[in-house]
Amino acid sequence: MEQLRILKALFSAPQQWIPVRCLQPRYCCHLANSGVTSGERRATLDKFKTQISSGPSFQDFIKGSSVKQTYVADGEQHDKHGYLSEDLEMGNSRKVYFETYGCQMNVNDTEIAWSILQKKGYHRTGDLNKADVVLLVTCSIREKAEQTIWNRLQQLTAMKKKRLKSPTPMKIGILGCMAERLKTELLEREKLVDVLAGPDAYRDLPRLLTVADGGHQASNVLLSLEETYADIMPVHHAPQGHSAFVSIMRGCDNMCSYCIVPFTRGRERSRPVSSILEEVRMLSDQGVKEVTLLGQNVNSYRDTSEEQFCGTDPTKLSRGFNTVYRSKQGGLRFSDLLDKVSQIDLDMRIRFTSPHPKDFPDEVLHLIAERGNVCKQVHLPAQSGSSQVLKAMRRGYTREAYLDLVQNVKRIIPEVSLSSDFISGFCGETDEDHQQTLSLIREVGYNVGFLFAYSMRKKTHAFHRLQDDVPAEVKQQRLQECISVFREEAARVNAALIGSTQLVLVEGESRRSAKDLCGRTDGNTKVIFPKEDVAVQPAESNTASISAGDYVLVKILSANSQSLRGEALSHSSLRGTTTHCETLPRQQVDELRHNHGSKHSLD
Fold this sequence. Notes:
By secondary structure, the protein is α/β, with parallel strands linked by helices. The chain is built from 17 helices and 25 strands. The strands form eight sheets. It has a six-stranded parallel β-sheet with strand order 4-3-5-6-7-8, with helices on both faces. A five-stranded mixed β-barrel has the order 19-20-21-25-24. The chain has a three-stranded parallel β-sheet with strand order 9-12-15, with helices on both faces. α14 links the parallel β17 and β18 (448-453). The radius of gyration is 30 Å and the shape is globular. The termini are far apart.
């Protein structure tokens, strides 16, 4: 009450207005007492204000503030940092060396990062000893992948210390998923790197490297809801230039309980279809014969960049599948994109990875079946054969729904080749669950598989809610059993191709022998065959050598779980070919083999 009385007294006291002089602003400047004119003072003040306005703004110091982007007349997007001149962000012919780990998306990310740095005057080198900047494009999906990077960083740090006194000290950068997931450990605890750039921060690389040149660590691992690098044309470095990866979407919304991708790559966003088609046309003009469309959940592609695409139709899922998120509406779907891409070059193979089984409605399967240049190879990641484990994984389907999808795929695409992913030893997996996975592998019959023991990742649903209760030795035992069964089934699937004629896209020399060439079938199975001249066209006597990027018809003579062996018959073309195993009548095949020469023994 005493305080209230004091306040009341203050506010009830009569106001007394105190006269205040109008003070002139004073500036800390050596010109203050030098007798300069007011005009000169004003000019000095204006210059000072200009210098302040060109420096960092308040937004530059706010955590999470995005870099301002401006668009110039030619449509190219630029990042603007008002406090760094463009001269400072130039590479000045410094040499950058890339090492890429993990999935195909990281290969594509490397091409994007290099495109950005190349425009800033950096040069690329394949010699680590000549590198001024070493950038590791990393993967976080499993602990083993991260440990590989930690070991590599120790080696690179030793090299870096030897060059501390050189005119151009080596800078080390981590790009990609590991940069986002382990930013604190990389920058603070280990202090092994100079630059960190997450998957959505590659545009910021020139600035980050400039900051690192000043002796400071630099980091940008912010995830974006919009970044697709649609305006960045990747610099492709495919072997012999015959194949290329094209990113069509980034991120994932599925939130499978074991998966770190939504936390390192962010939410799903799709690249505008016009940008994708432009890149595929460019690759076709360069003579590329195979394009793989890429995305963390590639067949959930949904372009909403144009108003005409934004309808109200809900996204269709495979029958019996569901999602953790509400149904999405509108947008140009994956089937629409695949349709447009396949029409650009009828002599260019189209593949896509990595899909989710939930996003295979019938229209996608029918399109694959109808288009001769869309490969009849479908990746269906199962992860487990047990409905109980699938539920714990939050996959959105049961064993029965998955097998129904497999039957539907085989019905619509009779010649389909199937591949899959499996995780052994997930949280709570029993021996009965494991046996169900083995039986699923036997029942489906895959020709390619990617199998791993479960590795718990921080931030995931499993990390917070489940117990990693399967012992490491049991995980490894189950993994080896899965691999063994997988190889048995793959050998059986591949053996069924003996005697057929396959259209093979040649990749180059076999790694085991310079006398052999290797390539891949439409079903993505490796084929090895002798390096010899063959007929220019079927039933022609003129012959020509075989080079990487050529299509050739190969008679399959033997098979194992990993590859096929055969004999090249003639050059060929994808255009107009629909059923590769029946391209030539048996009599014509035998005639070609007789004209070409004697049979070759197989190892």
